[in-house]
Amino acid sequence: MFGPIEFLIVTTVGLLFLGSGMLWCLAVVRRVHGEPVLPWNPAVRHPRLFAGVAASVLVWYGAMELGVVAIVQPSPDASARRSTADERRGVVDAEQPETPQSKPLSPDEKLGRTRQTAVASCVSSLSATLVILLLLPQFSIEPRRLRDFGVSSHAINGQLKDGVWGFGASVAPVAIVLASTYWLRTDETQHTLLKLLAADSSVSTVLIVVLSAVVAAPLIEELIFRVVIQGWLQTKLHPVAAIGITSVLFAAVHGFPDSLALLPLAAILGVLYYRRFSYVAVVVAHMLFNATNVILALLIEIGSGEAGVDGIAACVRGMLL
Question: What is the pLDDT of residues 269-319, one digit of tens each?
Fold first, then answer.
């Protein structure tokens, strides 16, 4: 017999997978009848400058570094500080072994640093998003408007529907890859924000994780990878190559083994941006994906005492982008 939480998790995942499968069936039917899966947005794609790509990445990286320096309190022992690469990704690995010369951090200190780094990542991502959006009109051969990059509130209802479609289409392929690679994912490889939820499920921690994973990360990552990088590559390469390269880069920055399951998601987001030319659509799809991961993580944490939930957790252990 399923416990109530286990039943809710299985039902939620099953319904999402079923809905995603129906979307793929509909897509196949449309292709068979010669109809496009996603209607083409005829908006003109303007040439971009590589300098704009470099500037956007530097703004993002610089904001992350400044956020960590400004918000995360330094360790009492300099040798106990975490790597810059981990902190830039919003990661402080509480399980990282201390060096013999460093003073071991207590569990509360490790948890505190993880929370601080999550806050720093959130603030830095939102700040970088705002700065890049202000500079984006200059990132072309001649100054343009934000809507020339797919950043617009025009026909917002249609963009929101496209985002829901993108999320729905991503569920089935991501779930298949997750199920086939579940043996690669352990507590050590789990995203630090999910570790934070497991260690502290207080209201403040949940709020930090939601703002960081569901709001800030989709805004900055879709702006960098889809609007800036893929938008530039589309003016230089065939769309398939542009989407493929961007998808590999997007998956790679999230590390192994999460990158395996994120490849189909990244490809779907790339196709969605290419066909619909909508920043709002890809952000909504990304937000829904991460929100689903957070909700499942909370349900697993709540039901951790039920028989069977640990087995489900091994299969649906999620990734946050």
Answer: 999 999 999 999 999 999 999 999 888 888 887 776 554 545 545 555 554
Instruction: Answer yes or no: are the C-beta atoms of 236 and 153 closer than 8 Å.
Output: no
Alpha-carbon gap, residue 65 to 313, rounded angstroms: 33
| DSSP class per residue in 90-140 | T---TTPPPPTTSPPPPHHHHHHHHHHHHHHHHHHHHHHHHHHHHHGGGSB
End-to-end CA distance of the chain: 34
User: Using CA atoms in the order 259, 228, 83, 186, what is the torsion angle rounded to 10 degrees?
Assistant: -20
Radius of gyration of the chain (CA): 20
**What is the distance between the alpha carbons of residues 192 and 111, in angstroms, rounded to a whole number?**
11
Task: For residue 168, give both structure tokens.
Answer: 């729905």
For 6-19, write each residue's pLDDT tens digit. 888 888 889 999 99
Q: Determine if the peptide bond prior to 42 is cis (ω within 30°).
A: no
Confirm if 89 and 221 have CB atoms less than 8 A apart: no
Tell me the domain boundaries of the chain: 4-91+105-316
Q: Are 80 and 99 in contact (CB under 8 A)?
A: yes
